[in-house]
Amino acid sequence: MTAAPYSAADLPVRPGEEPWSDAELGQLRVELEKEAVALRAELGESQAQIAARLGDAATEAGDDEADASSKLFEREHELALSNNTRELLEQTEHALVRIEAGTYGVCESCGKPIGKARLQAFPRATLCVTCKQRQERR
What we know:
mainly alpha; elongated; single chain; 2 domains
């Protein structure tokens, strides 16, 4: 990716926090990019396994009820894991887009700073703590 047209220090931080340094933001970007690559690979493997299991469904027609139920559970579990991986990838890619756009660290609900410490702990955060708590109460 290309360098951002702004300084990392321009990103918002909460009162009392040190501004982002270019090195900190660069390291965060690299970590997110590596994670996105790993998630894409994991998602590809998962989708291949799901497709193989769905292809096996025709040969499983004679299975007894317990075997069929067990295999159905496994397929549903793999689908759930695949969906979770897809969602994590979307969040990771969204964080990278926000870094490039210079909007990283701005709460998508209230527009206030999310907080550097929160983003260092959870780099995919899109909401400040207050808005996230409000969302979880709903």
